[in-house]
Specification:
The protein folds into 2 domains: 30 residues; 137 residues, Glutaredoxin. The protein has 4 helices and 5 strands. The chain has a 5-stranded mixed beta sheet.
Length: 175
């Protein structure tokens, strides 16, 4: 093999390595696939279904709004200002029961809502498999018969928050 052949082979190897390095660099620096939006958590409660949660004593004379959360969930924590707004607007009116449901012990549940200034009629801690959701936070509006009327999974944007407030107001007027 002559010097010219060696130089050609080295040049080919060098070009291949440069192209390979460029391809690898482009793949490594590509933006990662977006994670699913937390607003698309998976609720398994269906409209018309009866809600049965251990420790949840539904008041038969009025609808209930269930705030289903987990204290370690960042989306739940970011949802707390809206939950506080809902509680300020409706708690103590006697027209809707506001209930915090946490997938942890009762005392931790009450503490979590208290720390965020969310005053509710009741809190209940349950095992994660006791609620029919696969993601937190989830709001569930239950009518005075214990039947699911609406479900809002995930962290809610302003438009979905407005839907929640309108649905609560409508449910209160029916009872």
């Amino acid at each position: 093999m002559g010097a010219l052949d060696k130089l050609a082979n080295v040049s080919i190897i060098f070009v291949c390595c440069a192209i390979g390095a460029d391809v690898i660099q482009r793949r490594m620096s590509a933006a990662p696939a977006a994670a699913p939006s937390p607003s698309f958590a998976y609720s398994e409660y269906k409209s018309g279904e009866t809600v049965e949660i251990p420790g949840f004593a539904r008041q038969a004379d009025r609808p209930s709004l269930l705030f289903i959360v987990k204290s370690t969930c960042p989306y739940c924590t970011r949802s707390m200002p809206f939950y506080e707004q809902v509680a300020r607007q409706f708690q103590g009116t006697g027209s809707i029961q506001l209930v915090g449901v946490c997938t942890e012990p009762d005392d931790a549940c009450a503490k979590y809502f208290d720390e965020h200034g969310v005053k509710l009629d009741a809190t209940v801690g349950v095992a994660a498999n006791a609620v029919k959701i696969r993601g937190t936070p989830t709001l569930v509006l239950v009518n005075d018969n214990g039947t699911v009327k609406e479900v809002w999974p995930g962290e809610l944007d302003a438009a979905r928050q407005a839907l929640v407030l309108a649905a609560i107001d409508k449910a209160r007027k029916r009872s």
